Amino acid sequence: MSERKELQSETGTPTGADADALRVNAVSAVAHFGLESPLTLDSGAKLSPFQIAYETYGTLNADKSNVILICHALTLDQYAASRNPVTGKAGGWWETMVGPGLPIDTDKFFVICQNVLGSCMGTTGPKDIDPATGKAYGLTFPVITIADMVRAQAMLLDRLGINDIFLVIGGSMGGMQTLQWAAAYPQRVFAAIPIATTARHSAQNIAFHEVGRQAIMADPDWRDGQYLDQGTTPAKGLAVARMAAHITYLSEAALHRKFGRKLQNREKVTYGFDADFQIESYLRHQGMSFVDRFDANSYLYITRAMDYFDLAADYEGVLANAFKNTKTRFCVVSFTSDWLFPTSDNRQIVHALNAAAANVSFVEIDTDKGHDAFLLDEPEMFATLKGFIASAATKRGLNP
Amino acid sequence: MSSQTRVDLALIAEMIEANARVLDVGCGDGDLLELLTRTKNVDGRGIELSQDGVNASVTRGLSVIQGDADADLHDYPDNAFDYVILSQTIQATRNPRDVLMQMQRIGRRVVVSLPNFGNWRIRLQLLWSGRMPRTRSLDYNWYDTPNIHLCTVKDFVMLCEEVGLRIDDAVSVIGNRAKRVGRPGTLDNLTAETAVLLMSRKS
């Protein structure tokens, strides 16, 4: 509430951001899991104590049947539809999708978005203090997996007394969590929308992640991961990691449309290594602004979790077995210009679901915006997801 | 790919038992699936080649995936459905025989509707004009038609025979009139514009 008060303008009327929070009934919370409830990780390590920071939107109905769980992507956070306190960006990263009258309708559903394990926006991660040493975890933080993230999320829902989830939805790494949810807790998930994702991280994507990690580790200010104790920040390394990754989120066509070979505030090239081209300037800006909001070690840990994701591996190498006898209704979404999680990756999920005789829809959205399209204004995606969610809600008895 | 007509849809719907599990291959905008869901309470799924058709179907709340009969039937397990429907599509598949084999593998029963190339008008057109026939339901030039595997009803019945499908019911359609014929004969092969067949695996 104090934060909301700060946002009041001098005349006492709510500012845009505050009105936005009220519009979706945003509530910020942190759940603490003490020594009595440790999280057992895939690596065999136990994490305890830990905490999960999350946002909720909308109102939980009486029989707790209207829950939508949003799983966020690699560097995103719990602020899907409310002001991000670090960047100050109002509306959240999915303001086109989540809100009154939008596909994820906050007037109808109770929406939960949790900051993932290992991240840096309130949920326990490598920048937090290890109670055993009194110092930041750094690289002593245990390596985590997508399944670990989902296990932690399930613990929070248990804590909130929520058993059944009407819908789990997420793009990119959020899609991996969505698939993991559906495979690990089939009886809890009524519907699932994995977007622009994969059931198995590809060699090419692992390669890109490795470039990012090496950039961070090559920064002398990284200090073997102990930069917080030593008062430094591997800003350059993290910025380069972000620049490389950012290219993979776009498409050649989108880059050409937005930047082409246009020069940055100059008439001709300078015969030097300044940012002559607009695309260079844009990438540098993306890199530098990322450093202000993200922890370098979190980047290492979360990219590693994505690299390790291979859902079929836990089911005798047969992806269909991950969805055996599932009653969950799936809608898989891909984008034509996404080369990071291409349609072929998403189609593999569809094939596995068909082989499991699951209830599945699959739409490929025609766009030149690349992987990031799931975060952008894509009317055809909104229309199809609205149709899918409405029909699932009817089946679930949520439409009076 | 599919050009489902009203008559066609109604006839197919009549052949489907209530509460069945149904796969509609080449479901277009989902008209038949919606009809079956509404009137027969089926658990329906669809496959459609065109992205517009898929998106329209999913927007209507139907479970439809982008794919095609030639490539995507292999994924489904045996006996996954009570009915697998192929409406006005088999003539546009690359390998109709394989498609039919897959359909009978994944469905207990198979429903196919197809344009009859043995219809007397088509025969006469070819005979008199010496050019590839064009009709109401096959309104394409030879060089731009998606219908690469046209057949007569007789051809189709023989293929069913070959892949081990028994014909349980058949309807011959002429214009807007439908006639139940049980099993299509020589006369039906001459008069039918469209045939709708309900089949099951010979045990």
How would you describe the overall organization of this protein?
The complex is a heterodimer of chains A (400) and B (203). Chain A has 400 residues and is an alpha/beta fold. Chain A folds into two domains: 19-201 and 310-395, Rossmann fold, CATH 3.40.50.1820; 206-302, Orthogonal Bundle (Rna Polymerase Sigma Factor, Chain: A), CATH 1.10.1740. Chain A contains twelve helices and twelve strands. The longest helix of chain A is centred in the last third of the chain and has 17 residues, at 379-395. Mean pLDDT of chain A is 94; it is low at 1-16. Chain B has 203 residues and is an alpha/beta fold. Chain B has one domain (6-116, 147-201): Vaccinia Virus protein VP39 (Rossmann fold). Helices cover 35% and strands 26% of the residues of chain B. Chain B has an eight-stranded mixed beta sheet, sandwiched between helices. In chain B, strand 4, helix 5 (96-106) and strand 5 form a beta-alpha-beta unit. Chain B is globular, with a radius of gyration of 16 Å. The relative contact order of chain B is 0.15. Classes of the chains: A alpha/beta (400), B alpha/beta (203). The A-B interface holds A 329, 331-332, 350-352, 354-357, 359-366, 380, 383-384, 386-388, 390-392, 394 and B 43, 45, 51, 54-55, 57-67, 72, 75-77, 80.
